[in-house]
Write a structure and sequence with these properties.
With 424 residues, this protein is an alpha/beta fold. 35% of the residues lie in helices and 19% in strands. A 9-stranded mixed β-sheet has the order 7-6-5-8-4-9-10-1-11, with helices on both faces. The protein has a 3-stranded antiparallel β-sheet with strand order 13-12-14. α1 (45-62) packs parallel to α10 and α6 (243-258) packs across α7 (265-281).
Length: 424
């Protein structure tokens, strides 16, 4: 549209970013091998092994274990490092890959090296986002993959029409194939998300492998312990050989030459990739009392141009290090403090006291409709603790008085009122 935007505004987050979120960018794993999922490195078995070892070490630290399984971790203090017994941090872990192909390659490698079994032992269950959940994908997943302690083999839940024996959910490339549709994909995605929720709610842990730009990264709610840790394994660049990407970059480069101040093709290319990362990172914080950790496991997240595209609340607390052990110790210290402040489910001590003294909350929903033909319906909810009203409905503000107290609400003369009481 070629419209200038001379003023840019970015709202602050609702949380205290100094206490409720922990963000570290690491360029090396526990063995000192570089973490970088670029085109030249992504097929390296050493990279995939180091990535898997990093995820395993993060899980061990959540369980209160160090890499030797001792149950103790080095935590920093005013008098220097101290070995303290770590507090276990329950919750689900979300790992986002740049693409489905990279996730497939890593999963296959971890299965070959038996690292997948070790991840499963530590995480309780490993679940993989179906390929059909990737936006724009024409190859929906044929089955849900999961692995639990009772079996070291991948469990396959096949579609009714499935006849493929593919090892990672690839659909056959037969032209005109119509064995699945969007409804099937949605049902499959819902199934694996519910499976993940159930594992975290009942066992306190689970590992979900997903992709940036997929539906899990942008449209699923992982509040509280359902999304306690998010791990980003790389930058999800669009395929650089895609004709549409080439044309877009060429167009922007030509515009930049003609008019300064506009994005170049490369700047747009990076911006679109980091925007997808920001969407995935957003899964970790879902309300004002939520807390969580973000691991950026790619050396490119240590560069200023990439950091500059991250959300402001992420940049505010971002730390960069090439010492994996130092980052893990810092993570454990953050987790211990967060548990003390907000509990395992994201409640402050004051919140807990209020909920204990006032377990009953009565809600009233007020609906105002100008007339039967009016499309405008205004809803307003009033919440009062039980101890404030002694359980008596009469203590509620009458609908007309409640409405007149609402700022900016215009009440037509012929408005009608209806209300209902609900205890929860």
């Amino acid at each position: 549209m070629k419209l200038p935007f001379p003023i840019e505004l970015e709202s602050p987050h609702v949380i205290d970013t100094t206490k409720q979120v922990w963000v570290h960018a690491l360029d090396k794993g526990p063995s000192g091998v570089s973490l970088n999922s670029n085109f030249q490195n992504r097929d390296s078995p050493h990279y995939k092994d180091e990535l898997g070892a990093s995820i395993l070490a993060i899980h061990k630290s959540m369980r209160g274990l160090d890499n030797n399984g001792s149950g103790r971790w080095v935590l920093g203090g005013p008098s220097g490092p101290q070995r303290e017994r770590a507090v276990p941090l329950s919750g689900g872990v979300l790992v986002f890959f740049p693409s489905y192909a990279l996730m497939e390659a890593a999963y296959s490698r971890w299965k070959e090296t038996n690292l997948l079994s070790r991840l499963t032992e530590m995480a309780g269950e490993v679940i993989v986002e179906p390929r059909g959940a990737l936006k724009g994908s024409s190859k929906p997943s044929k089955f849900i993959m999961s692995q639990n302690r009772s079996s070291s083999n991948v469990q396959k839940k096949k579609d009714v029409a499935s006849s493929s024996s593919s090892s990672f959910g690839k659909a056959p490339s037969t032209p005109g194939s119509t064995h699945t549709d969007n409804a099937d994909d949605e049902a499959e995605l819902k199934g694996i998300v519910e499976q993940f929720y159930d594992a975290v709610d009942n066992k306190g842990k689970c590992l979900l492998l997903a992709v940036c730009r997929g539906k899990v990264s942008e449209g699923i709610d992982f509040r509280d312990k359902r999304g306690r840790v998010v791990i980003i394994t790389g930058l999800p660049y669009s395929p650089f050989k895609d004709p549409r990407v080439k044309l877009k970059k060429k167009h922007l480069d030509e515009r930049k030459v003609a008019k300064s101040g506009t994005l170049s093709g490369e700047e747009w290319y990076l911006q679109s990739a980091v925007r997808a990362v920001n969407q995935a990172i957003g899964r970790v914080i879902r309300h004002s009392k939520d807390y969580g950790a973000i691991f950026l496991l790619d050396s490119r997240f240590q560069t200023s141009k990439v950091i500059g595209e991250l959300s402001g609340w992420v940049r505010a607390g971002l730390k960069r290090t090439d010492q994996f052990g130092t980052a893990i110790a810092s993570f454990r210290e953050f987790a211990s403090k967060a548990i003390e402040l907000y509990g395992k489910n994201g409640q402050t001590k004051d919140d807990k006291k209020t909920s204990e003294t006032s377990p009953l909350v009565v809600r009233r929903e007020l609906t105002i409709r100008a007339d039967e033909t009016s499309p405008l319906v205004v809803r307003r909810e009033l919440t009062i603790r039980a101890d404030e009203i002694d359980g008596k409905e009469e203590s509620f503000v009458p609908p007309d008085r409640l409405l007149t107290q609402a700022e900016g609400v215009l009440v037509p003369d012929d408005a009608t009122f209806s209300s209902e009481f609900q205890a929860s």
